[in-house]
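Mods, move this if it's the wrong board.
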Amino acid sequence: MVKSTKEGKLTRIGKELAAMRNLLWHATHTSWFEYGAGSRVYHFRFPLRYQTLARDGVPIFFEKPGPSTMKPQPEFSDATVRGIVKGKIEKVIKRGYMAKVSTGLKLRSLIKYFAVPKGQDDVRMVYDGTASGLNDAVWAPSFWLPTVDSLVRALDSNSWMADRDIGEMFLNFQLHESAWPFAGVDIRPILDEEGKCTMDRWYVWVRNAMGFKSSPYNSVKMTLIAEEVILGDRLDLSNPFQWESVRVDGLNACILVTFVGDERVAGATRELTWQAGRRLAQIQSYLGIQDAARKVGECLQQPRAWAGSVVHVLPGSGVYVLTSEEKWIRMKGIVDKWLTQLEAGATELDHKEFVSDRGFLVYATQAYPDLKPYLKGFHLTAEMCRGDRDEEGWKLPENMRSEPCSVWEGDVDEAAFGHATKTEVRLYAPKDGRTPPAPRLLDDLKALQELTQLETPPMRVVRPKRMVHVFYGFADASGKGKGSTYQGYKTIQHPSGELGPLNDVVYRVGVWGSDEEGESSNYRELTNLVNDTEAEARAGNLHETELFLFTDNSTAESAFFKGSSTSKLLHALVLRETDDCSRHGWVLSGNFDGRCDGWAKYAVLLMDLDKSAVDRCPALLDWIKDWTMQPDLKPLTPEEWFVEGHGIVGGQPDGHGVWMPTHQASGKLHLWAPAPAVADAMLEELLKARHKRTDTYHVVVIPRLMAPRWRRLFLKVVDLNFDVPAGASFWPSDMYEPLWVGPGHSSALPCWWNWQGHCVKCAKSVTSLQGIFCANFSSSRGEWTACQQAWHPECYTCLGQGFFPNVAIHDEDGNEWVHQKAREKVLNSGKPGMHAVMSFQCELCWMRNLEGRDPDMSDPKDVKYVHCLRRASLDVMSSRAAGKVKTHVSLITKLLENCKALNRTPQLADRGPMPLSDPVGMGPAVDLLMRSNTSKGRINPEGTPQFDAVRKLRSTFTKLHLSSPQGCSEGSAFFGSVTKYRFTSAPTQSEFFGDFLIGCEARMGFDTRKQLYLPITVIIEQLRLVQRDAEETEDQQYARTLYKFGGLICILTAASLRGHEGFYMDLAATRKHIDKGRHGVVPQNILKRAILTEEECNNLPEICLCLLGKFKGENNERCHSIVLPNVTSSGLEVRWWIEKVVEVCESEGRTSGYAFWRDDKTPPRVMEFNALVRDYLREIQDNKPELFGPENDLSRYGTSRTYRKSSENRARRAGIKEDDIKVMNRWNVLENAKGKRPRMAMIDHYSDASRAKPRRGTDCTPSQIVGSCYLSSDPGSLHVVALPDTGWDSVSHFDNGVCFSHVPFGISKTNLHLVPLRQEMELGVDSPPAVCSIGCYVGPKLLRQFRTHFIG
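Not the wrong board. Structure tokens:
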């Protein structure tokens, strides 16, 4: 059983065993009354889906590598404080919340801690994850917490409440191991001298620590998961949390609301509430979550404060909200303090203290919305130090601003503020710490002093007990006119005997005066509403009433609901309305959207407050099904909001009888379509569900009615939103109000060309065809949620600059290329819409594909891994020309526009989701990139290897795949006479990998160090010097080595062989045929004669070089005979050097085998002779610089390719065509004899070569003849072509069935006679050239190809 890896990390089994040992340790120190050694959650008692989270902790989202701050903890100067701190840290260590640094953990950073006074004799410990940089390296999602409204919604005039508390809230839950290296604590300052010697200095947090950014989100997530078990089976009648749509016993269901660790249970009766609290404590303890019994509150109808407010239930009256007496007194004190300073004539206020007091007032007035308008003076004063304000502190118009205005005005939506990026929020403070008061601050303070003059906090009614009647009224202002209508406000007994409102209608009409006619429509709309409500209030019609305002003016709606406005005029109107509420005893409960276009329409709207969008317009559901591609989609019912919406599909008791929920699979899509009146309750449930599960999708649709009550929650829960105006086919005009649609969490529009997201790097919005989107942007895969990763092209840049080779281009003088910067930008950044033309996935998804996990950005290895993934994607992108990509994107854009004009659905292939595998070769690409960085270069040992060496990994991976079981099963192939094509799914043969190699080569460059050629004169001089040294040395073994070296370079040049092919010289065969042609002569007048006799042909001066080995393009070792001239016209003494090699071998006692083998009969290496090559070249440089100058780099010459290249170069200078040279020197161009290669013994090779020598010439005049080509019609024979050596030293060798078209003549197809093309020079009869023999096999197919070969 493997418990840990080689790196010391625990395996799954190891983690399970470690968790169980830790659980047993905590359990043995726990009594009925206290957790003596703290606690740890019993992960195996959690729902199966969440057991890993409970055991290992919620994963930490690292945005960048963690910090490396190992600065020691400062000492405490105060001995008393040090003693208190020591006790608190020792308590944490003894409870196992901090652990000693284990051998498998490398500590990288320390969290600082300090003490803050708490009362007279105590301190509060603060662990600062921000100071170390840890909080800056991680990302923690925002999340929702319940408010007092969440509690009040479930209360009535008979409800009871009880409070409980989670002990050591954050410390109950594990800190994920990815954060351990950065959560170290230095305890040396609290140790005494003895402890410093005996105790370990370094400890590490293993629980969610205070001061760590991710702790609140992760801890609350685990409590919400535990809440599913606590609430239990809702259909179990013995469960105090049991409920249906309405409880069967007619009572309200019990609820549980938790604000971080503060829990409140509410129920219909005292007994039921107590039972619910008991179950809460029981199940929490069962799961291992501490229940702080010392903080248990009794069941009351007027309990203590919770979530910042106090809720009182008065059975005879209703439900009320107020603030605590402590906060009320402090609020009064703040108002009096600043009012006293202003009345004393203060012209400047302490900015820091003022902003702190403003924050408290905003918090304290949550229980009293009517006080919000009077905080405007505080907001304006706090912002007076900013620019772009008038003398009263109000924002200047846009066209008059020079600096961004404040984001925080107290009336800005919290959700919008949370979505603001760091670059958009500028925090200012006056340099001297003082700020001038806004002119209206004095009046606001006086109003607040009057409104807070009561000694005890007043109670605000939120749910009265009395029944009410509804009265309707309408008001509107359009153009120059205004008006309103109201139903009579008297309740009478109708003839039917029922009580109801008087049916009389009161109306007002009028026109605007000249002083108001020029104001904005927003101002006129709001003024009309305020004037009419004031008139009704003065008439006594609004006493003890609750007023709901419906308006089609969003600005008026916003101003009323928030109780404030950034506009001076609109804020004054809101203040008038609030004043009127206070003086005439009516409540402005809400301000809701709605079009006021007539009685009939408006009456329908009021009835529709309790109907969902789908109920009002069934066609809407078909539209949603269409773009979500979910044909069976149905909206969740209100009952399902609390169950299926949280992913719960049932449950069953565990082994101890505790009901455990079961959960649906990942990727489920839920449609939430609440009625506007209850949308806030629905959205709170959705926010809880999102917090727990990040692998389900949600779509929310709500008519824009009562929007102020739910807009902030809506914007918080959805990832993008849009509104559908009334008038669409699925939302007709009789719906009046727009429909708000919001795909929530990982649910974006399926059509990839409509994707919208936020750039991972800069957080600004980005659209599909203008950015780069991951193929899995809107799709979940397996247990993984949609990644929603997108970038602007300029933001998708190389990670780990300098880690990957990037060749720089320079001119001959070493100056950087003028376009080098632009080239680097292309190589290291993306292109707009690139995901439309390549299979692009983000690094997060590739880690999931390749490793089955998310990257751990605190691990340097994972960081390097992610860098390689990014580099591979960029290399693929750089393989595509920017212009071509732009053209493709432009064509897609035009296509979409045309489809829109035709109302046609575009037929564009989906971008994702991609499979959870690697079909395109990203894994091998990463391996190739790592090789390019870690391997040493051959050409430049201090640098990186060249691309040509790195790319060979592709062949290795392909061969591994083809030889695997999967590769063997892919046996289908197309093949012809020469080439075979095979089907394969090898990732390294994909288009993606091919593009990667192209981009990788462009980035790395292709710098080769090929060997150079030598002039023939230099080679002749080399051989002369070799012969000289061999004759002069007394060391016979060294002399033999020199003769072999000279013979090798001679035959490499004469036969145009690669270096290793010269070692194939077969000693026995060469000795057998060495005498033939020794005394041959060149016939006289050969250039002027048309016919040679057979005797003259047999007596040409030649020597046969016999080779035995496997040449390039062949499948096995074979015999080859090459007929060479005895001496070339350049003076290359071929026969002398071959005979000398044979003589040396005979002196060594060898007459067979390979001629160039060592004395110990082992094959030499080509590189062994390179030193000799360069030594002799250096001597020539020194003594004969006119032949080989000192400017030549000797390292570029060797036996491997130099002499073959020298032969090729000589051929080019002689006028031989480039194609012929390539064919002559590459044995992989085959001309099969009826699909087979003739196979013969060595003796047959030589015999065929002899028979193929010329029997007759061509019918040409002597002046036209340059040489003669002799052909045989036998397809299985070897042939010889004899050419006069006019300074051309290159000769070609061949094998049966191998075609070398280096024939400088045309060939007649009909009679196989040779037809010379041209002769540019006259050769004298008295100076016949030597003869160079070239072997050439001509098959039937080759005859059709020889048309224009010639020699100049």
